[in-house]
Amino acid sequence: MNILIIGAGFAGSVVARELAEAGHQILAVDRREHIAGNAFDVKDQHGILIHQYGPHIFHTNSERIFNYLSKYTEWYQYEHRVRGVVDGKEYPFPINRDTLNQLYDLDLTEEQASEYFEKVREPKEKVLTSEDVVLNSVGRDLYEKFFLNYTKKQWGLDPSKLKAGVAARIPTRTNTDDRYFTDTYQAMPLHGYTVMFENILDHPNIKIQLSTEFTDILKSNLIFDHIVYTGPIDAFYEFKFGHLPYRSLRFEHEHLSSQEWYQSVGTVNYPNNYEYTRITEFKHLTGQMHSSTSIVREYPTADGDPYYPIPRDENEVLFKKYKALADAEERVTFVGRLAEYRYYNMDQVVGAALNAADKILVRK
């Protein structure tokens, strides 16, 4: 078959490779001038490997997905750590026993930390929103110090207006584990994400066309037996039912030539001050050695490229209208965060892409 794949990020690239391996001819197009989607990384003019679209930290509990990507990259072992700044001081985040002890000048044991959370939490009979999740877990003071204003900046909405799943992604710990993730596999592509994508797409049956709008391809005279679409589902249907709400980001990159390090860990959150939500220093993530350093500040915005589907019930209702159209398509497969309007992690996108490729191969 001749197959058109729209988007050369994780979803599109993995499907492309799987179908190419099965003998199909692939044209992968992307509106950007590079492959790898939002995971695109590149050395800046100072020689430091940066993530152009903000930090991408790989982690998964899936041996299958880790082994799959291991065919295309070596790994640098890295466990991500985050600090949250409250009243000018840094604290471990997600909240753990050290956070409590440092913030409140306590000396709690693990059992006492569990008792503390039980004492301050505001039990919710029904946990429906992100606010419910956090209040039910850690109570109001920690909610207001670490979550409330960060969420408002990140999503442009009060936590009480967001579905519970947003906050449920962030654990609360009674031990002193200060890793952001606890997944079995935590590592970064040794030579960067872009090199990994180059390896995934390096197949004689795959042709890549960049700086190309998918609408131009669809209006061309090219004939395809099947289309794999990884962009915003509402754009595919020309916003027939209206625009699905997405949250965007603006990135402010900065190089600091006079210092080797800027901060103590990979990412520092600023929940209550400044317009940006967090600062990431890339050398922590990549293990690169350099005499200077590069950082990025993230500013959530309402306008710009779509990054995060906004998880609200009314948005899900609108998405289901588009999904009904997508489900009726026989020659188009929709896969990925934007096409499925899901807040996927990278490993989840890879898993969805592998499943999508399997279904296409079985069908054909």
Automatic annotation (TrEMBL):
The identity of this protein, by name, is UDP-galactopyranose mutase
Which Enzyme Commission numbers does its entry carry?
5.4.99.9
Residue stretches making up the UDP-galactopyranose mutase C-terminal domain: 145-343
Q: Which family does it belong to?
A: Belongs to the UDP-galactopyranose/dTDP-fucopyranose mutase family.
Question: What does UniProt list as this organism's lineage?
Answer: Bacteria, Pseudomonadati, Pseudomonadota, Gammaproteobacteria, Moraxellales
Its GO CC terms are: cytosol
Keyword terms, alphabetized: FAD, Flavoprotein, Isomerase
Record-level Gene Ontology MF annotations: flavin adenine dinucleotide binding; UDP-galactopyranose mutase activity
Tell me where the signal peptide lies: none
NCBIfam families listed in its UniProt record: UDP-GALP_mutase
Known cofactor(s): FAD
